[in-house]
Amino acid sequence: MDADARPVALITGVAGQDGTYLSELLISRGWQVHGVARTDPSTTDTGQYLTGVTVHIQDIANTDATVDLIDRIEPDHVFHLAGISSVWKSWQDPVLTTRVNGLSVVGVLDGCLTLQDRVGKRVTVVNASSAEIFAGSGISPQDENTPIVPTSPYGASKAFAHHMVQVYRAKGLAASNAILYNHESPRRPDTFVTRKITKAVTAIAAGEQDVLELGDTSAVRDWGWAPEYVEAVYEMATLSHGDDVVVATGEARSVEDFVATAFACVGIADWRRHVTRSSVLRRAADPESLVGNSAKAQRLLSWSPRHSFDAVVREMLVGDGAPVTER
């Protein structure tokens, strides 16, 4: 492919789990990829996954810098993945969460609309929305028509971003919301409960740790495989129009299911003696069940998940070096 004819992409949050998988996917398809990172990824573990990516270091909440970057790069597609992604952290610093997750999307959308008007070419945006926007809906499973009722600062900030995408779509920008349900991989930071579990189970199996401390293990989630979810994000960028699409497996599993499966994978049947529960680790207003209906993604994107729940858990354990048993 002629280098000048290659699609140009800009990925915010390029050094995160989704950003690294998406950049690898786009580069494998011949795209030019630029990425925004808060700090130099070459000094972190994720730097190894960004070969071929032109990385720009900036605060994504600095909207002027974002608009300027989009103006200079002139991307065809922008994937907005950056932001504070921890519900727990959003309660610790709701002001920062609102600033980062709220302002950043406005900078991206306005920069893209301004670029589109200036150069006369179509610019597409895919925003990483979240299942947490539905946390207080009382409806399960959720789909694109479920009422948006967030119950945390994180969920509220993502709901704002979700609505701003719709506002700019009405202004003529091909902007989409990928409503992503929980999706995991070995690249998931250990601040997330799934990675905390797999790292602890690996250590317990090796005799290096005895106890895994968790909060509420009854919460039900919909867990998928991150590399597959970025495929859906990519497909959304190729649509002829902007849209809102749930990306999920539709399978309801509790945190306790995740724990039990992880211990079973390393041959520990009596897992309960290794697990303690702490009220300190419980999340405020934690929704009981966030499970998505991805029928629209299957119809519109020809996308469906391939990894089973057990396969996701096993691959995370393998990534952590656990002695996974044959099943």
Task: Describe the secondary-structure layout.
Blueprint: E1 8-12, H1 17-28, E2 32-37, E3 53-57, H2 63-73, E4 77-80, H3 87-92, H4 94-119, E5 124-130, H5 153-170, E6 174-180, E7 183-184, H6 193-205, E8 212-214, E9 220-221, E10 224-225, H7 226-237, E11 244-247, E12 253-254, H8 255-265, E13 275-277, H9 295-300, H10 309-319
Parallel strand pairs: 1-2, 1-4, 2-3, 4-5, 5-6, 6-11, 7-10, 8-13
Antiparallel strand pairs: 9-12
CATH superfamily of the largest domain: NAD(P)-binding Rossmann-like Domain
Strand content: 15-25%
- Report strand order across the widest sheet: 3-2-1-4-5-6-11
Order of helices and strands: EHEEHEHHEHEEHEEEHEEHEHH
CATH fold field value of the largest domain = Rossmann fold
Rg calculated over all Cα atoms: 20 Å
Query: How many β-strand stretches?
Result: 13
Give the gist of this structure.
The protein has 327 residues and is of the alpha/beta class. The protein has 2 domains: 7-183 and 225-247, NAD(P)-binding Rossmann-like Domain (Rossmann fold); 185-222 and 251-286 and 307-319, UDP-galactose 4-epimerase, domain 1. The protein has 10 helices and 13 strands.
Attribute tags:
327 residues; alpha/beta; Rossmann fold; UDP-galactose 4-epimerase, domain 1; 7-stranded parallel sheet; two-stranded parallel sheet; 10 helices; 16% strand
Task: Describe what this molecule looks like in 3D.
This protein has 327 residues and is α/β, with parallel strands linked by helices. It folds into two domains: 200 residues, 3-Layer(aba) Sandwich (Rossmann fold); 87 residues, UDP-galactose 4-epimerase, domain 1 (Alpha-Beta Complex), CATH 3.90.25.10. Helices cover 39% and strands 16% of the residues. Strands 3-2-1-4-5-6-11 form a seven-stranded parallel sheet, with helices on both faces. The chain has a two-stranded parallel sheet with strand order 7-10. Strands 8-13 form a two-stranded parallel ribbon. Helix 4 runs parallel beside helix 5. The protein is globular, with a radius of gyration of 20 Å. The relative contact order is 0.13. The mean pLDDT is 94.
